[in-house]
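Researcher: Going back to the complex we discussed earlier. I've cleaned up the inputs and rechecked each line, so this should be the final set. Can you rerun the prediction on the complete assembly and write out the structure?
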Amino acid sequence: MRVNFTVNGRPQEADDVWEGESLLYVLRERLGLPGSKNACEQGECGSCTVRLDGVPVCACLVAAGQVEGREVVTVEGLAEYAKQRAEGGCGTGACGTTLQDARQWRATGTDSQAGQGTELSPIQQAFIDAGAVQCGFCTPGLLVAADEMLERHPNPSDADIREALSGNLCRCTGYEKIMDAVRLAAARQGEAV
Amino acid sequence: MDFLRPASWEEALAAKAEHPTAVPIAGGTDVMVEINFDHRRPEYLLDLTRVGDLYEWEAGEDSVRLGASVPYTKIMENLRTELPGLALASHTVASPQIRNRGGVGGNLGTASPAGDAHPALLAAGAEVEAESVRGTRLIPIDAFYTGVKRNALAADELIRAVHIKKADGPQQFSKVGTRNAMVIAVCAFGIALHPETRTVRTGIGSAAPTPVRAKAAEEFLNAALDEGGFWDNGKIITPSVAKQFADLCAGACNPIDDVRGTASYRRHAVGVMARRTLTWTWESYRGARRHTEGAA
Ligand SMILES: Cc1cc2nc3c(=O)[nH]c(=O)nc-3n(C[C@H](O)[C@H](O)[C@H](O)COP(=O)(O)OP(=O)(O)OC[C@H]3O[C@@H](n4cnc5c(N)ncnc54)[C@H](O)[C@@H]3O)c2cc1C
Ligand code: FES
Ligand code: FES
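Model: Rerun complete. Updated structure for the full complex:
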């Protein structure tokens, strides 16, 4: 079947989708967006977390056909999404991230050699600055979940952070640096206002 | 496989009547796991996420009519006062991502003995509104669970909503697991005090082939509270009464040994949870009583 939906602010179309396929498979294998990770396919790890109509969900547990006409934000579109939020919406009418850009998207924060390129969202920059990324497999899901939490709780308590990230497993960091990163992003967000 | 996408409740019922083997999919947090792991290859998937009615709830005089697909997150955010037991139970389900998708309709559809909504529904008192093209019926929650992962729905029926009694007293939910998040209950216990009818109801999860009430324990406690005039005098429940209640709750279990725990551990833990949650709810009943008496 064919599925039409919005990915990172742009309309997309996936063809030859099998009816039992997950949104995660469609994103990774049909649209070429491997940012959302596949680690368990059973909702346990959160590494496939995306936003579906604004709400964080496990993409591995959403049937492809269920996203018809809906809006999905993946980690590849997070920087642009956060930017638009900070600017209070899309002024130019040409916002969002094209499939081409999303496929080539890579982190080029202040830490990178690459110099030019995409700006990072505050949460992405904070993860780099706090050393919250080791192997990086859990990172995309954590970024999407943490960014959404900061949207709801600009001044999160540690309990808020732990609760919001309780569906995301990390096998490397021991979580402390991840907590630091989210606290850092929240603090910077507070300064900016 | 075919993906059926009804746009309304009527269309969904018609589709289920035409294809009784179709597997409904709401939040997908049970169904998709089975499909991803090839445990299930249904001929038809019946997507319910376009049926807006299923995401709504109404609080009536005595009960809340909770749409089958209202996600746990919404229950926690909006129904804490009316349905405190279910709100507490919802908060223990999996993770935010799962709670944003999954709901009570899916929990009832799966009818796992470990489903967290069940003890809360049993304790509060509830009826499942099942509908087909043939009509609507209300299934008492006690009659809904018919076996391990089996329920009373007919092949052409869908769950439209659950009617849950609004709390008229304190409620609690308790669950044993290895950590707070993402844990399937080793066992779970729900309790609801109903001062209006002067009764206490219970629900036990993961300690029998189906979710069950501890009926003998309820009867014992109702009689003991009545005899001692506890509802009126608001005294602390005698430790021997609490202990007997806990023992009878443990006795209502018919658990198995599995990877999550042994049968004897489950029985023991249900007794402990029964005593604790009875104490917590009774303390808050006494507190509320003192408060209203003080005000009078
Ligand atoms: C990682 C993980 C952790 C979990 N942890 C918990 C937990 O801690 N506690 C817990 O209780 N559960 C847990 N679950 C199980 C699951 O999230 C719940 O059972 C949830 O309530 C299912 O709701 P759903 O809408 O996602 O159901 P779905 O997967 O969409 O459906 C579940 C079943 O119900 C049927 N169904 C759905 N809606 C209807 C309807 N309206 N009428 C008739 N049949 C219907 C479906 O056909 C299917 O058989 C967990 C699942 C995962 C993946
Ligand atoms: S891959 Fe989806 S939660 Fe693990
Ligand atoms: S950084 Fe390796 S899993 Fe989290």
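Model: Worth noting: Residues A 38-41, 43-48, 58, 60 surround FE2/S2 (inorganic) cluster (ligand 2) (CB under 6 Å).
Researcher: Good, that matches what I expected from the previous run.
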